[in-house]
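Input (structure):
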Protein backbone atom coordinates (compact mmCIF):
# COMPACT_ATOMS: atom_id res chain seq x y z
CA UNK A 1 0.00 0.00 0.00
CA UNK A 2 1.24 3.48 -0.82
CA UNK A 3 1.42 5.76 2.17
CA UNK A 4 0.27 9.35 2.14
CA UNK A 5 2.73 12.16 1.60
CA UNK A 6 3.56 14.83 4.14
CA UNK A 7 0.93 14.00 6.76
CA UNK A 8 -2.77 13.46 6.47
CA UNK A 9 -4.84 16.15 4.73
CA UNK A 10 -8.39 16.47 6.13
CA UNK A 11 -10.84 16.42 3.22
CA UNK A 12 -14.63 16.51 3.36
CA UNK A 13 -15.92 15.60 -0.08
CA UNK A 14 -19.48 15.98 -1.38
CA UNK A 15 -20.85 14.99 -4.77
CA UNK A 16 -22.90 18.17 -5.32
CA UNK A 17 -20.58 21.18 -5.74
CA UNK A 18 -21.04 24.17 -3.41
CA UNK A 19 -21.70 26.51 -6.35
CA UNK A 20 -24.83 24.51 -7.23
CA UNK A 21 -26.16 24.64 -3.67
CA UNK A 22 -25.26 28.33 -3.37
CA UNK A 23 -27.38 29.14 -6.41
CA UNK A 24 -30.31 27.10 -5.07
CA UNK A 25 -29.97 28.79 -1.69
CA UNK A 26 -30.56 32.20 -3.34
CA UNK A 27 -33.75 31.08 -5.08
CA UNK A 28 -36.97 32.79 -4.00
CA UNK A 29 -38.93 29.52 -3.79
CA UNK A 30 -38.79 28.11 -0.22
CA UNK A 31 -39.14 24.59 -1.63
CA UNK A 32 -35.79 25.12 -3.34
CA UNK A 33 -33.83 27.41 -1.05
CA UNK A 34 -34.88 25.70 2.19
CA UNK A 35 -33.24 22.29 1.54
CA UNK A 36 -30.24 23.94 -0.13
CA UNK A 37 -29.54 26.21 2.83
CA UNK A 38 -30.01 23.34 5.26
CA UNK A 39 -27.62 21.21 3.20
CA UNK A 40 -24.97 23.94 3.12
CA UNK A 41 -25.23 24.34 6.89
CA UNK A 42 -24.96 20.62 7.46
CA UNK A 43 -22.00 20.35 5.09
CA UNK A 44 -20.22 23.12 6.99
CA UNK A 45 -20.75 21.26 10.26
CA UNK A 46 -19.54 17.98 8.79
CA UNK A 47 -16.50 19.73 7.32
CA UNK A 48 -15.63 21.04 10.80
CA UNK A 49 -16.19 17.61 12.30
CA UNK A 50 -13.91 16.09 9.67
CA UNK A 51 -11.16 18.51 10.57
CA UNK A 52 -11.51 17.88 14.31
CA UNK A 53 -11.49 14.12 13.79
CA UNK A 54 -8.25 14.48 11.87
CA UNK A 55 -6.69 16.63 14.59
CA UNK A 56 -7.71 14.37 17.48
CA UNK A 57 -7.21 11.16 15.55
CA UNK A 58 -9.87 8.73 14.41
CA UNK A 59 -10.11 5.25 15.88
CA UNK A 60 -8.25 2.67 13.82
CA UNK A 61 -10.54 0.44 11.79
CA UNK A 62 -9.50 -3.15 11.21
CA UNK A 63 -11.25 -5.94 9.32
CA UNK A 64 -13.47 -8.03 11.60
CA UNK A 65 -12.29 -11.39 12.83
CA UNK A 66 -12.96 -14.13 10.33
CA UNK A 67 -13.09 -11.82 7.30
CA UNK A 68 -11.26 -13.35 4.37
CA UNK A 69 -8.97 -11.24 2.22
CA UNK A 70 -10.60 -10.23 -1.03
CA UNK A 71 -14.12 -10.35 0.41
CA UNK A 72 -16.20 -7.23 1.12
CA UNK A 73 -17.57 -6.43 4.56
CA UNK A 74 -20.53 -4.09 4.05
CA UNK A 75 -22.84 -2.62 6.64
CA UNK A 76 -25.71 -0.27 5.81
CA UNK A 77 -27.40 1.91 8.43
CA UNK A 78 -30.61 3.96 8.44
CA UNK A 79 -30.07 7.46 9.84
CA UNK A 80 -33.85 7.89 10.10
CA UNK A 81 -33.68 11.44 8.69
CA UNK A 82 -31.47 12.44 11.60
CA UNK A 83 -27.81 13.43 11.65
CA UNK A 84 -26.39 11.08 14.27
CA UNK A 85 -24.12 8.63 12.47
CA UNK A 86 -24.14 5.84 11.63
CA UNK A 87 -27.76 5.22 12.70
CA UNK A 88 -29.64 1.92 13.01
CA UNK A 89 -28.02 -1.11 11.42
CA UNK A 90 -30.37 -2.46 8.72
CA UNK A 91 -28.25 -4.72 6.51
CA UNK A 92 -25.01 -6.59 7.05
CA UNK A 93 -22.72 -8.47 4.70
CA UNK A 94 -24.41 -11.49 3.18
CA UNK A 95 -27.96 -10.59 4.17
CA UNK A 96 -30.68 -10.66 1.54
CA UNK A 97 -32.24 -7.46 0.14
CA UNK A 98 -35.04 -5.87 2.13
CA UNK A 99 -37.89 -3.58 1.19
CA UNK A 100 -35.93 -0.32 1.42
CA UNK A 101 -34.60 0.46 -2.07
CA UNK A 102 -32.09 2.99 -0.73
CA UNK A 103 -30.56 0.36 1.54
CA UNK A 104 -30.36 -2.14 -1.30
CA UNK A 105 -28.79 0.35 -3.71
CA UNK A 106 -26.22 1.47 -1.14
CA UNK A 107 -25.29 -2.14 -0.40
CA UNK A 108 -24.95 -2.94 -4.11
CA UNK A 109 -22.94 0.22 -4.79
CA UNK A 110 -20.47 -0.58 -2.03
CA UNK A 111 -20.08 -4.03 -3.55
CA UNK A 112 -19.64 -2.72 -7.08
CA UNK A 113 -16.88 -0.39 -5.92
CA UNK A 114 -15.14 -3.14 -3.96
CA UNK A 115 -15.33 -5.47 -6.96
CA UNK A 116 -13.88 -3.05 -9.49
CA UNK A 117 -10.88 -2.27 -7.31
CA UNK A 118 -10.31 -5.93 -6.47
CA UNK A 119 -10.85 -7.48 -9.90
CA UNK A 120 -9.23 -4.77 -12.01
CA UNK A 121 -6.43 -3.58 -9.71
CA UNK A 122 -6.07 -6.29 -7.03
CA UNK A 123 -6.87 -3.73 -4.34
CA UNK A 124 -8.57 -5.15 -1.24
CA UNK A 125 -11.09 -2.42 -0.36
CA UNK A 126 -10.33 1.28 -0.45
CA UNK A 127 -7.34 1.14 1.88
CA UNK A 128 -5.87 -1.96 0.24
CA UNK A 129 -6.14 -3.89 3.52
CA UNK A 130 -9.78 -4.97 3.60
CA UNK A 131 -11.31 -1.90 5.22
CA UNK A 132 -15.00 -2.51 6.09
CA UNK A 133 -17.36 -0.43 3.97
CA UNK A 134 -20.09 1.36 5.93
CA UNK A 135 -22.90 3.55 4.62
CA UNK A 136 -25.81 5.46 6.11
CA UNK A 137 -28.96 6.24 4.11
CA UNK A 138 -31.89 8.61 4.79
CA UNK A 139 -29.56 11.21 6.27
CA UNK A 140 -31.23 14.40 7.52
CA UNK A 141 -34.39 15.96 6.03
CA UNK A 142 -34.34 16.59 2.28
CA UNK A 143 -30.56 16.53 2.36
CA UNK A 144 -29.21 17.37 -1.10
CA UNK A 145 -25.88 15.59 -1.04
CA UNK A 146 -23.81 12.48 -0.48
CA UNK A 147 -20.39 12.42 1.09
CA UNK A 148 -17.42 10.42 2.32
CA UNK A 149 -16.44 11.66 5.79
CA UNK A 150 -13.18 9.74 6.05
CA UNK A 151 -14.83 6.81 7.77
CA UNK A 152 -18.06 6.01 5.93
CA UNK A 153 -20.48 6.91 3.11
CA UNK A 154 -23.55 9.06 3.82
CA UNK A 155 -26.54 9.54 1.49
CA UNK A 156 -29.33 12.08 1.54
CA UNK A 157 -32.75 11.46 0.02
CA UNK A 158 -32.72 14.70 -1.97
CA UNK A 159 -35.48 17.31 -1.92
CA UNK A 160 -37.54 15.71 -4.70
CA UNK A 161 -37.57 19.06 -6.50
CA UNK A 162 -34.01 19.25 -7.86
CA UNK A 163 -32.35 16.08 -6.59
CA UNK A 164 -33.61 12.53 -6.12
CA UNK A 165 -32.23 9.85 -3.82
CA UNK A 166 -28.42 9.95 -3.84
CA UNK A 167 -28.11 6.16 -3.83
CA UNK A 168 -29.56 5.98 -7.36
CA UNK A 169 -26.36 6.55 -9.44
CA UNK A 170 -23.73 3.89 -8.71
CA UNK A 171 -21.04 6.27 -9.97
CA UNK A 172 -21.88 8.67 -7.12
CA UNK A 173 -21.12 5.87 -4.66
CA UNK A 174 -17.94 4.97 -6.51
CA UNK A 175 -16.91 8.62 -6.70
CA UNK A 176 -17.20 9.18 -2.98
CA UNK A 177 -15.50 5.93 -1.99
CA UNK A 178 -12.63 6.78 -4.35
CA UNK A 179 -11.97 9.85 -2.22
CA UNK A 180 -11.14 7.22 0.38
CA UNK A 181 -8.71 5.53 -2.01
CA UNK A 182 -7.03 8.88 -2.66
CA UNK A 183 -6.97 9.53 1.09
CA UNK A 184 -5.00 6.30 1.58
CA UNK A 185 -2.64 6.81 -1.37
CA UNK A 186 -1.59 10.11 -2.97
CA UNK A 187 -3.54 12.23 -0.43
CA UNK A 188 -4.04 15.03 -2.96
CA UNK A 189 -4.54 18.40 -1.32
CA UNK A 190 -8.07 19.73 -1.73
CA UNK A 191 -7.13 23.08 -3.21
CA UNK A 192 -6.55 24.45 -6.71
CA UNK A 193 -5.28 22.04 -9.34
CA UNK A 194 -4.40 19.27 -6.87
CA UNK A 195 -7.95 19.52 -5.52
CA UNK A 196 -9.36 19.38 -9.05
CA UNK A 197 -7.25 16.26 -9.62
CA UNK A 198 -8.67 14.81 -6.40
CA UNK A 199 -12.19 15.36 -7.74
CA UNK A 200 -11.28 14.14 -11.21
CA UNK A 201 -9.79 10.89 -9.94
CA UNK A 202 -13.08 10.25 -8.12
CA UNK A 203 -15.06 10.98 -11.28
CA UNK A 204 -12.78 8.73 -13.33
CA UNK A 205 -13.13 5.70 -11.09
CA UNK A 206 -16.78 6.44 -10.34
CA UNK A 207 -17.44 6.26 -14.07
CA UNK A 208 -15.31 3.11 -14.41
CA UNK A 209 -17.29 1.44 -11.63
CA UNK A 210 -20.51 2.17 -13.51
CA UNK A 211 -19.02 0.92 -16.78
CA UNK A 212 -17.68 -2.24 -15.10
CA UNK A 213 -21.07 -2.92 -13.52
CA UNK A 214 -22.83 -2.50 -16.88
CA UNK A 215 -20.15 -4.32 -18.88
CA UNK A 216 -19.69 -1.30 -21.15
CA UNK A 217 -16.81 -0.42 -23.42
CA UNK A 218 -15.46 3.12 -23.55
CA UNK A 219 -17.46 3.70 -26.73
CA UNK A 220 -20.71 2.49 -25.13
CA UNK A 221 -20.43 4.49 -21.90
CA UNK A 222 -22.32 7.76 -21.42
CA UNK A 223 -19.43 9.33 -19.43
CA UNK A 224 -21.92 11.16 -17.21
CA UNK A 225 -21.50 11.60 -13.47
CA UNK A 226 -24.76 11.47 -11.54
CA UNK A 227 -27.12 10.46 -14.35
CA UNK A 228 -30.52 9.74 -12.80
CA UNK A 229 -29.93 12.08 -9.88
CA UNK A 230 -31.65 15.17 -11.27
CA UNK A 231 -35.41 15.45 -10.75
CA UNK A 232 -37.72 15.56 -13.81
CA UNK A 233 -38.20 19.34 -13.61
CA UNK A 234 -34.48 19.98 -14.16
CA UNK A 235 -33.22 20.59 -17.69
CA UNK A 236 -30.15 18.44 -17.63
CA UNK A 237 -28.72 14.94 -17.78
CA UNK A 238 -26.33 14.75 -14.83
CA UNK A 239 -23.99 16.69 -12.55
CA UNK A 240 -21.02 16.48 -14.91
CA UNK A 241 -20.03 15.15 -18.33
CA UNK A 242 -16.55 13.80 -18.93
CA UNK A 243 -17.20 13.51 -22.66
CA UNK A 244 -18.34 17.12 -23.01
CA UNK A 245 -17.65 19.18 -19.87
CA UNK A 246 -19.98 22.15 -19.61
CA UNK A 247 -22.99 20.36 -21.13
CA UNK A 248 -24.38 18.30 -18.23
CA UNK A 249 -27.17 20.78 -17.47
CA UNK A 250 -28.52 24.14 -18.60
CA UNK A 251 -31.42 24.97 -16.32
CA UNK A 252 -33.31 28.10 -15.33
CA UNK A 253 -32.81 27.21 -11.64
CA UNK A 254 -29.39 25.54 -11.62
CA UNK A 255 -27.90 27.71 -14.33
CA UNK A 256 -25.44 26.32 -16.89
CA UNK A 257 -22.81 23.69 -16.18
CA UNK A 258 -19.60 25.77 -15.71
CA UNK A 259 -16.99 23.06 -16.30
CA UNK A 260 -14.26 23.77 -18.88
CA UNK A 261 -12.93 21.04 -21.15
CA UNK A 262 -9.54 22.64 -21.87
CA UNK A 263 -6.99 24.94 -20.23
CA UNK A 264 -8.10 27.75 -22.52
CA UNK A 265 -11.16 28.12 -20.29
CA UNK A 266 -9.60 27.33 -16.91
CA UNK A 267 -11.62 29.07 -14.19
CA UNK A 268 -9.74 31.21 -11.68
CA UNK A 269 -11.87 31.53 -8.56
CA UNK A 270 -11.49 31.75 -4.82
CA UNK A 271 -14.64 29.74 -4.14
CA UNK A 272 -14.94 25.96 -3.82
CA UNK A 273 -11.27 25.67 -2.76
CA UNK A 274 -10.18 27.27 -6.01
CA UNK A 275 -12.79 25.66 -8.22
CA UNK A 276 -11.99 22.00 -7.54
CA UNK A 277 -15.40 20.84 -8.83
CA UNK A 278 -15.24 23.10 -11.88
CA UNK A 279 -11.70 22.70 -13.22
CA UNK A 280 -11.83 18.94 -12.71
CA UNK A 281 -13.53 18.97 -16.12
CA UNK A 282 -10.11 19.35 -17.76
CA UNK A 283 -8.42 16.17 -16.44
CA UNK A 284 -11.81 14.43 -16.73
CA UNK A 285 -11.89 15.19 -20.43
CA UNK A 286 -8.29 14.06 -20.83
CA UNK A 287 -9.19 10.68 -19.36
CA UNK A 288 -12.22 10.37 -21.64
CA UNK A 289 -10.06 11.15 -24.68
CA UNK A 290 -7.40 8.66 -23.63
CA UNK A 291 -9.92 5.92 -22.82
CA UNK A 292 -11.83 6.25 -26.09
CA UNK A 293 -8.60 6.41 -28.08
CA UNK A 294 -7.39 3.17 -26.51
CA UNK A 295 -10.80 1.55 -26.89
CA UNK A 296 -12.16 -1.57 -25.24
CA UNK A 297 -12.99 -1.51 -21.55
CA UNK A 298 -11.74 1.75 -20.09
CA UNK A 299 -10.74 0.23 -16.76
CA UNK A 300 -8.25 -2.12 -18.42
CA UNK A 301 -5.72 0.25 -19.99
CA UNK A 302 -6.56 3.91 -19.37
CA UNK A 303 -7.86 3.10 -15.88
CA UNK A 304 -4.77 1.02 -15.12
CA UNK A 305 -2.51 3.92 -16.10
CA UNK A 306 -4.41 6.36 -13.88
CA UNK A 307 -4.41 3.83 -11.03
CA UNK A 308 -0.65 3.33 -11.40
CA UNK A 309 -0.13 7.08 -11.00
CA UNK A 310 -2.49 7.40 -8.03
CA UNK A 311 -0.87 4.55 -6.12
CA UNK A 312 2.69 4.57 -7.44
CA UNK A 313 4.20 6.79 -4.78
CA UNK A 314 5.50 9.51 -7.13
CA UNK A 315 2.38 11.71 -7.20
CA UNK A 316 2.94 14.58 -4.78
CA UNK A 317 0.05 15.80 -2.65
CA UNK A 318 0.28 19.28 -4.22
CA UNK A 319 0.55 17.98 -7.81
CA UNK A 320 -0.56 20.23 -10.64
CA UNK A 321 -2.22 19.09 -13.87
CA UNK A 322 1.12 18.99 -15.73
CA UNK A 323 2.67 16.86 -12.96
CA UNK A 324 -0.15 14.33 -13.13
CA UNK A 325 -0.13 14.30 -16.93
CA UNK A 326 3.64 13.70 -17.03
CA UNK A 327 3.27 10.76 -14.64
CA UNK A 328 0.52 9.21 -16.78
CA UNK A 329 2.82 9.36 -19.80
CA UNK A 330 5.59 7.74 -17.74
CA UNK A 331 3.19 5.06 -16.45
CA UNK A 332 1.92 4.31 -19.96
CA UNK A 333 5.47 3.88 -21.23
CA UNK A 334 6.51 1.67 -18.31
CA UNK A 335 3.48 -0.61 -18.55
CA UNK A 336 2.86 -0.73 -22.31
CA UNK A 337 6.02 0.52 -24.01
CA UNK A 338 6.22 3.00 -26.87
CA UNK A 339 2.97 2.02 -28.53
CA UNK A 340 -0.61 3.16 -29.01
CA UNK A 341 -1.21 3.50 -25.27
CA UNK A 342 1.60 5.98 -24.85
CA UNK A 343 0.55 8.01 -27.88
CA UNK A 344 -3.10 7.97 -26.81
CA UNK A 345 -2.29 9.36 -23.38
CA UNK A 346 0.08 12.03 -24.73
CA UNK A 347 -2.43 13.18 -27.33
CA UNK A 348 -5.26 13.33 -24.77
CA UNK A 349 -3.35 15.80 -22.61
CA UNK A 350 -2.31 17.80 -25.67
CA UNK A 351 -5.97 18.12 -26.69
CA UNK A 352 -6.94 19.64 -23.34
CA UNK A 353 -3.95 21.98 -23.34
CA UNK A 354 -1.88 20.40 -20.55
CA UNK A 355 1.82 20.10 -21.27
CA UNK A 356 3.75 16.94 -20.39
CA UNK A 357 7.49 16.75 -19.79
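Output (sequence):
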Amino acid sequence: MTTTHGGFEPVFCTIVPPHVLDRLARNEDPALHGPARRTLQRDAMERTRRHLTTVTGAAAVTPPAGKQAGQPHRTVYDAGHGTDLPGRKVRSEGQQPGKDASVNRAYSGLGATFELYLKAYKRDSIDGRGLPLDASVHYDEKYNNAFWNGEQMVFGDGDGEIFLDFTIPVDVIGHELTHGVTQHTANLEYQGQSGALNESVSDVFGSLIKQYTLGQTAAQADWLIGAGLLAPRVTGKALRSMKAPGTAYDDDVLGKDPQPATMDHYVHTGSDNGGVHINSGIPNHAFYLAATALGGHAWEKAGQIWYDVLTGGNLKSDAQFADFATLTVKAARERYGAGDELEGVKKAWEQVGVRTA
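Notes: The chain is about 40% helix and 10% strand. The CA atoms of residues 79 and 87 lie 4 Å apart.
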